[in-house]
Each structure stands twice: as C-alpha cells, then as structure tokens.
Write a structure and sequence with these properties.
One of its GO terms (cellular component) is membrane. Pfam families: Transmemb_17. It is found in: Cell projection, Cilium; Membrane. By secondary structure, this protein is mainly alpha-helical. The protein has one domain. It is built from 4 helices and no strands. The relative contact order is 0.18.
Length: about 130
C-alpha cells in the first residue's frame, strides 16, 4: 500500500530543499551586503531558515518512514509539520525584509511540492486506514 509517487516526491523534495536552503542563505547574505538590511531582522531571518531546515528534516523523515511502514501516525505527523513548513515558506515569500524575484520562484516551487505532497499523504493515509 506504500505510495511510490509519494516516496519519489519525498526524495525529490529532499534534494530540492538542499538547493532551497543554500540559495536562500546565499540570498540573505547577498541582501545583507547590497541592501541596508536592518540588523534587527537579519538574525531572525537566519534563525527561521534554520528552524525551517530542522522541520524539513523531521517532515521528510517521518513522511518517508510512515509511507514505507504503512503507518498513519508518522505520515499524519509529517502532514502537520508540513503546515509549519508552509507558513515559513510563505514568510520567506511575502514577509521577509527584502523579497527578490529569485525568492518568489524558489518559494513557489517549494509551495507547489508541499501541496502535491500533502495530497499524496492524505491519499496514502486513506489507503492505510
């Protein structure tokens, strides 16, 4: 009953998130050098990026484990953590101090994969029950 498309999406999303993390980190450093980035906002933006990375690792681990072992609880917990990841992605898309066009593009792709993953998770949970 394990979902092969969901497992494949976990793998692709894991690779994409590494790119997302490094690109966002590089853009924050770039913005802090080129623009007058307020010091009061630099540390929180970096902290939120690292919190997002921790959530992403947990989300992908629990989702993959739940899918492979055909258990609803880890997959459901991964779905709940996805909500936090979506909120942080929206922060970097809308509420960040400076939002570049590259921010919009990489966050849009990330939000699309979150949406697709969520649909597949709900489908997999329904199949396991």
């Amino acid at each position: 009953l394990s979902s092969v498309p969901l497992q494949l999406l976990f793998y692709i999303n894991g690779i994409y998130y590494i790119f997302y993390f490094l690109a966002t980190l590089a853009m924050i450093v770039y913005k802090s050098q080129v623009f007058s980035y307020p010091d009061d906002f630099l540390a929180p933006d970096l902290a939120l990026l690292f919190v997002m990375a921790i959530l992403e690792v947990l989300r992908l681990y629990l989702g993959s484990k739940g899918n492979l072992t055909e258990e609803e609880a880890p997959l459901g917990l991964s779905l709940v953590i996805t909500v936090g990841s979506v909120l942080l992605s929206v922060y970097f898309l809308v509420w960040q101090t400076y939002v570049l066009k590259a921010d919009v593009i990489i966050n849009a792709v990330l939000l699309f994969t979150y949406g697709l993953e969520s649909l597949l998770k709900v489908t997999a949970i329904a199949a396991f029950v």
